[in-house]
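Run folding on both entries below.
>entry_1
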Amino acid sequence: MDACLKPLIKSETSPPGALLAMLLASVIALVGCSGGRSSGDDQAAVMFLDQGLSDEDRQAFYYLSQGSQLLPYDWFLALEQAGNDTLFRDDTHMRELGYIPQPLDPARNPDGLPIGFVKDDNPDMIRADAFRMKKAFLGAAYTLEDYPTTNAWIGPTCAACHTAQIDYQGRSIRIDGGPSLVDHQSYMTQLAAALQATHRDPQKMDRFAQKVLAPNWSQGEQDALKARVVAYSGVLNRLVEQNATDLAYGHGRLDAFGAILNRVTETGLGIPGNHGESNAPVSFPFLWTAPQLDWVQWNSAVSNAIARNTGEVLGVYAHMQLTGTPQTGQFNSTVRIDNLDRIEDYVNSMQAPLWPEPVFGAIDTARAEQGRVLYAGNCKGCHVIRDAQGEFPRRQARPGEIRQFIITNAPPLDQLRTDPRMVQNVLSRFVDPGALKPYLPELPDHLKRGDKVIAVAVLGIAVSGVIDQRLKQEGLEGDALTEVKVRLNGGRTTREQLVPPPSIIATYKARPLNGIWATAPYLHNGSVPSLYQMLLPEEQRVKNFRVGSREFDPVNVGYLTDSGFAFDTSLAGNRNIGHSGPKHTQTRNDDGQWRDYTDDERWALVEYLKTLH
């Protein structure tokens, strides 16, 4: 399948005519390219653009465990939806939540689960050790007797939220590393409700127990299982309540930072006062090029790879012990550092998807050239593009680094003026460091408030501790430990800044826009549905639209907005303001005065943006 569109690799500086010729030459190769089959709409042929991954790489990216453990695996397979007797994992239900159903694969996906639904099995884990590691998550009243009698759990991997599927006129195109349209908030709410309904409804409990306990069912075993379901149902309910907020996320968004900080500083440290509201949902960023960027996350909060990935998996249901001492298990975790390293290799190999002209229509080369000139004069200062050699501009290596990284710019927020809530939440979150206080270096005054410190510093200590503990458990120390950490960091220095400079973290980064056509909705919070809308002055952008349809609109470049979650841009956190005015939605007249783009110029820029890869 990876041969599909394989010739379509060209730099942004390539003449549009040459790009068109290569695209048209691939029509025959594209038609008929198909991937795996699933059920319902997913039975249609799936096309895979050449993004640098083999079929084997792709399956590993979809189903390699990060160490996430949300629910016992056999429980998930047997669980029914709360309001009916249809399995929770039913493809139709998963599709409604935005996940991408997949066929059974004996090697990677033996139960035919959606992309990113992964089995994490630790057959040698001692039950009491697992219980101890998860005690902060399970709660003070939770006992070892309550703990499930299994070492096989299900949890998400990054592919669940960073794999997109675009539909158009009966065809589907898979975008590996693209932002998905999953509604994870609804998924968690419904999962907790389903488990609660199971132990409250005797018939549901009977069916559930027959599946989970087969072939060794007995009434006594079912009674014991029910007690464990009751106990764990309370855990899931608390997890949902912890991140509950009046601002619904909808499809394609998650307040990942809010959830991670709650998991680490509130749950992990056992300090309820460290709670913060998770009310700043952001779109799932696209992954290609990310390992080569100097900063990642929407607010440039992290640079090195393994810290970014470990923080992510801690937020999505890996478990860690942050209290006590290293001798009593502090920093033990379920995080699979080796698999995170492999996943990073797959991401590092990902290429931006090229606009598939045989499906969406040919790029207007003359109009794209007009857009290229406009982009060079207005957009390139923030969103860098490749040079004539096909390379992005890179900053100088820092001491200890073994490579250079692509420049991301950080225009001041008062100039960018996009919805500030995500940045403000991170900057204003101060917490009690609790058991991690001894590991904190002396911080500048602006990162402290009395006995509290900025939460991202505590997160950094937790992440570093988890990584170091796992590597030391592998017998690494001294120079060998440093060498491995440099590799895991993606070639960056091990002397990582605990908190990035205020000028960087206090705004949203501008990254290269290669593959931007496949990443709707736009802005960091997903508040703009199409590229065309992005080029309108903020007051002219659509104020209400729906998110959730995977049907593509190749004219405006985004998804159709006639079904799904109702997105209201008047709400704080949802605002579609900013990225408007000079160099955003305006260019200069010949007399040097700023003016709005003409509609012809907007369409020219849209056409050029299709060519970036």
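>entry_2
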Amino acid sequence: MNYTLLGKLNTPGDLNTLNEKQCALLCREIREELIERVTENGGHLASNLGVVELTLALHRVFDLPNDRLIFDVGHQSYVHKILSDRYDRFETLRKIGGLSGFQRRDESVYDAFGGGHASTSLSAAIGFAEADNLQKRRRFTVAVVGDGAFTGGMIHEALNNCREDLPLIIVLNENEMSISKNTGHFANLIAKLRSTKSYFWAKRQMKKFLSSTKAGKKLLRFASKQKMRIKRALYTDNYFEKMGINYFGPIDGHDQKKLEAVLREAKQSGECSLIHVRTVKGKGYEPAEKDPGRFHGIPPACHTPVPTFSEHFGKRLTSLAEKDERICGITAAMADGTGLTAFQKNHPQRFFDVGIAEEHAMTFAAGLSAAGMKPVYAVYSTFSQRCYDQMIHDAALQSIPVVLAIDRAGLAPADGPTHHGIFDVSMALSLPDSKIYAPLDFPALDALLDEALSGEKLTFIRYRSGGEIECAGQLPYIYREEFLRGKVYEDADGLIVTYGALANEALHAENAAARADKRVSVLALESLRPTKSLVTKILKLISPHTKVVFAEEGIRNGGAGVLWKEVLGEAGVCAEVLAIDRPFELSKKGETLLNTHGISKNHMLRALGIDCVPIV
């Protein structure tokens, strides 16, 4: 698109030459660009539309990249990318070889700290601010934190370590739930008074004057105490000021002029400050304003909707809960994403959304279970990493059965390394006696969920984003009681053992081999731990001298492949493992993630010595 301003501002200083009308025009053009690109490529739309004025104000007030701007999670950093040095690449957003949907240190000098998970920004920002103090550098660090992130414990742990003299500014972006109780006309009057230049100039001058004498210092301490007493008498206590953090707000997050004025005052104060802004998710795009949840994360324009594992899981759990009043559903602020909205609607008393607090969710589930309930904790694979200690200490160690529905398992091409679901199998297999399942289709998910809820073990059921594995119908059960599926030939030229979505790739390898007059057997595990019974039955399917490859869409260290290689080796079967060795590596343009990580169909065939398809 041809814009009047967007794309024609070549240096950070160019933004400061704009007048008020030009700023408003630039904001409109940014929103047009966001709507066009994100609806085409997919990504986080509503949250970015809501921070346009705020991000522009931050870029105009602070000296980036000398000062640092850290967005919590980072999914709302699209405007930041446009205004820094990436507008000319913005069309590549969330594409292989293109811009990340989050901040990445290796993408731009304007990204001081990467993200992808919630509630981490403030801890990192304090680290930067303390480093500046230690090295006597005059630089500012700004952390932009959404109100949702305040449901995560890390934010409050970080707040506990904020100091008044840190060159740190926290922007609390409130766009859904209320944090502060300071509402009404009087609170707004106080907010207006406290955000004026005269107020802060007088405060600084008085503090400087009183600090110059011993008597003045005593008076200053007395005045501070009296100020807090008066404030408590007049309006509700402010959580942040009680922690020694200057509080500004609440402020209209779409008032460009006011935002800049307050940001400059906070900067000039030289103290640790929190600026409370209120924004509207989806601002400027009516569909997103009306339904910000739906437009929080949207698929690419080319996406064809299909029934998903998440939706089916939610319906199945809701149905099971009709018959068993002990079943509870738990989510960490992801009811929609994990398919639990149906459960929430039908069983509100047994539905628990704990906010962005995965650690708490895990221990809470263990407590429910220990007290006789049947908790099912639905969590994305990438976020399950956050509660590994609780899996060990609060569930496995005490032999407490909890069911974890591990959603979005496997590689995440659009979101990248921060959202790859490739560590869960390694985590689960490290926990003694735990069970881990990987259904290929919905009937398998139903059977495995029934199995998990009737058992007494810590159980993981992992499934990919999207629908059933396309090849599931070509892989019938060989041993249903062991949840073992496959397609086996006598005297095969090779055997691929795998699980999850990679079963599809294994069948593509089998088809390619058949065109070269080679026969490759495929075994798909839906129960991943190598029990004695399962191993015995698999060994019966392996012909002497057959080459065996174990392929998995997970990390090698501690993964299923390494474990199965050891078990099969004890029985005299040599297996090669194809797994992910460099989990944070990015794919180049035109290259698939499976090729990048060496687990594609072509890698499987080459590992079997069948070189019939070139790697692309």
